[in-house]
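Appendix B, record 7
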Amino acid sequence: MSVGSNDIRVGSSTDGLTPVSVAERSLGADARQWAGLALVAGSAIAADQVTKYIVTSNVSLDGSVHVAGPLSIHHVQNTGIAFGLFSGATSVVVVVTAAAIVWMLAFFARSAARHPVLPAAFGLVIGGSLSNLFDRVRVGHVTDFIDFTGFSGARAVTRPTGIIPEASSEFPAT
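C-alpha cells (predicted):
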C-alpha cells in the first residue's frame, strides 16, 4: 500500500514538521495524588520514628535481638548512607538528601499521573528520606536496626543493617 499525499499517519501532522503530542491528558499531580503522597510519606515518617524510638529505648547500641529465621534487630548508628557509604560526611549527606527530596517532589509534580502507584512509591522514599534528614540534622546520625543474616552455600552472609523505609528501596536518597 502506497502512502498518498492526502494520507495522514497516526502520530504525524499534516505538514510533517509540527510535533504531535501523544499525551492528551496532563501528567502532572492533582490534589488527590498530592494527598496520597502526603499520607504515605507521613505514615512512613511516623513508622520510622516510632520504630527507631522503640529500638533505641530497648536495645543497647550495637546490641542485637534475634527475631525469627534470618531476621534480627541490631541497633547501630549510621552517619553515612546505605551500607555506611560516606560515613562521617553528615553535612554533605544532608545537602544531597535535601536536593534529592526537592528533585523527587518536582518530578512527582510533573509526572504523578503516569502510574497509579507513584504516590505510594514516592511517598515511601520521600518519607524515609525526610525522616532520615530529620535525624541527621537533630542528632547527626540515623539509627539503623533491621539485620538479615542468611546462608549462601557453607558461609554465612550478613546484609547491612537498615531501617523501615529502606526496606522498600535498597538505595534510598539518604
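Remarks on this record: The mean pLDDT is 80. The radius of gyration is 23 Å.
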